[in-house]
Amino acid sequence: MRKVLLIGKLNEIVRSVYECLVDDFQVQICTEEVETIKGMIKITMPELVIVNQIGIVEVDREILVWLEKYHPDIPVVIISTKEDWNKYESYCESEQFDKLIRPVGKEELIKKCYAMLDMGFETWEKEKVREQKKILVVDDSPLLLRNMKAILEERYKVIIATSGEQALKFVPAKKPDLILLDYEMPEVDGKQVYEELKKDEITKDIPVIFLTAMADKEHIYAALETRPAGYILKPPNKERLFQSIEEVLSVNDI
User: Fold this and answer.
1) Measured distance CA(53)–CA(44) in Å, rounded
2) What is the model's pLDDT at position 235?
3) Which of 106, 144, 170, 224: CA 20 to 30 A from 31?
């Protein structure tokens, strides 16, 4: 893992930044005192420095000058606000420095870190499997399952089930974050699966989006009566599919 030194007052923002980065980087938190920072850089030899200006009356300019003079090879990201950034802008004219203006989403933060480290965001997309949400796709059509799996694996971990009975076995064991469930299936259909999941304390809070090939109002109203997280018409449009999923699997900002 690449080493990151996170500088700032220990507040909620620093904690949030740490939580966002800790799975992808080796993160060390350091207070804003100049001599402490100098010592930590010598000890930890970070590959990236992040300075959280928020919560500090003013970042000591000495540390920015010192970093530029003695460690020009270490990229520095300053997290600030629109109002306060002008205080540091003149110090950050070199390519060594860059900024993030709050509010900052997790993806934006990690993307910036990877860019500063010249690693490319695609690297993170491929390596963050452990962080990916898990989606169970349930349908009796092998063709649809193959297509859905190919599309969704760009962003998520994907599990497939070919029947309602199989889905009911998989859900407690696999613990998916979201279920895409075919509403029209033989024997145990989507509605029955949904109702069984809602009866179980372990599975009742897992969101379900129905997949249906029936576009008429009667079938749509019948599906929506059970109050799922949403519904998608088959075959799904890729953009619409991702949009619906992201609406359910919301991402917290820092």
Assistant:
1) 21
2) 86
3) 106
Shared-domain flag, residues 92 and 151 = no
The pTM assigned to this predicted structure is: 0.50
CB contact at 8 A, 95 and 116: no
pLDDT computed for residue 137 by the predictor:
95
Last residue of a domain, one of 109, 127, 145: 127
Looking at the structure, tell me whether residues 39 and 98 fall in a common domain: yes
Q: pLDDT value at position 46?
A: 95
β-sheet with 178-182: strand ranges across:
157-161, 134-138, 178-182, 208-212, 230-233
**Mean pLDDT in each 10-residue stretch from start to end of the chain (254 residues)?**
89 90 90 90 94 76 88 93 82 85 89 83 51 88 92 89 92 92 87 89 90 63 65 86 84 43
**Same domain assignment for residues 142 and 182:** yes
Q: pLDDT at position 251, please? A: 45
Phi, psi of 50, rounded to the nearest 5 degrees: -115, 125
Q: Are residues 17 and 121 in the same domain?
A: yes
The verdict on 7 and 71 lying in the same domain is yes
pLDDT for res 209: 92
Burial code (b: 16+ CB inside 10 Å, e: under 16) for 57-81 equals eebeeebbeebbeebeebbbbbbbe
